[in-house]
Design goal:
With about 280 residues, the chain is mainly β. About 0% of the residues lie in helices and about 45% in strands. The model has no long low-confidence stretch (mean pLDDT about 95).
Length: about 280
């Protein structure tokens, strides 16, 4: 089993359980709402080729490894082609997921991580994602449960890729702006720069954007001049990744800011949850 195809109303989606439980495409009446994967082999070679993937149990880079509860763990690079030095986005996007349930319009996938592999996240957890298509669009609910005996850092996130044109325009509200950490330097919080304030709508800048917004209002309107798409989430943060010169950008709902110093703590047996919805507007 390599790819499952879901459909409901005008919507179609592809899911690859063995390839990080990633989405391979999402379409509405033939229009790509997400940037589609070129092929399953492309995802197999580089998980960033997926239309969307999950970040479990954390989002961002763990520069220098993981420091938590007075201990330090060395962490191997997750995807050396992306970052040859740092662990990145956890294990979910590079691990096969088990198919728990399936219908023509939904799947439930499960990932069990025992925390024993050297160089990987050193805490046990169970992750589950429920992917559902309906006449209203796509819904993903992602949960991570601490399956160990001690508290662990955890902040699951979702990482969808959207098609980008020179006219791509975003509208969303937020309260603050956050620059990710670089090496040993922590991230910096501050007011939203005027040029990157999308509360009244704005075109994506030509300069690269790789920053987080706090106090996310929950909904983003994406306009290309010929189409409109909405992303909505219950996440408190939104990360915007828009590299220069590429035909895609990312809107990533986060439950915690990037980097080891920023991760929330999940007690034994507790569950962190995040939901994402994408639909044509």
């Amino acid at each position: 089993m390599t790819e499952l195809e879901l459909s409901a109303g005008e919507y179609e989606a592809g899911v690859a359980p063995a390839l990080g439980g990633a989405l391979t495409f999402l379409r509405q009446s033939g229009r790509d709402l997400l940037r589609p994967a070129a092929s399953l082999d492309a995802i197999r070679e580089d998980p960033r080729s997926a239309a969307s993937f999950v970040c479990v149990p954390y989002f961002g880079r763990l520069y220098g490894g993981l420091d938590f509860a007075g201990r330090h763990w060395d962490m191997a690079p997750t995807v050396p082609a992306c970052d040859p030095k740092s662990a990145l986005h956890g294990e979910g996007w590079i691990s096969p997921w088990t198919l728990e349930d399936e219908s023509h319009a939904s799947v439930t996938l499960r990932l069990v991580h025992d925390g024993q592999a050297e160089g990987r996240f050193p805490f046990a957890y169970v992750a589950e994602q429920r992917i559902v298509l309906s006449e209203k669009g796509l819904s993903i609910v992602l949960t991570v449960t601490n399956a160990g005996d001690h508290p662990m850092p955890a902040a699951p996130a979702l990482h969808p890729y959207f098609p980008r044109t020179p006219a791509t325009r975003l509208t969303f509200s937020a309260k603050g702006f956050w620059t990710p950490p670089q090496g040993n330097a922590p991230g910096q919080a501050g007011p939203i720069p005027q040029a990157l304030d999308f509360s009244n709508g704005g075109v994506l800048p030509e300069t690269p954007l790789d920053h987080s917004y706090s106090g996310f209002g929950g909904t983003v309107l994406i306009e290309t001049g010929t189409s409109r798409t909405t992303l909505s989430s219950d996440a408190p943060f939104l990360h915007v990744y828009a590299p220069k010169g590429e035909g895609f950008f990312c809107l990533e709902p986060l439950t915690g800011l990037p980097g080891a110093r920023e991760l929330p703590i999940l007690a034994k047996g507790d569950t962190a949850r995040i939901q994402l919805n994408i639909a044509a507007a």
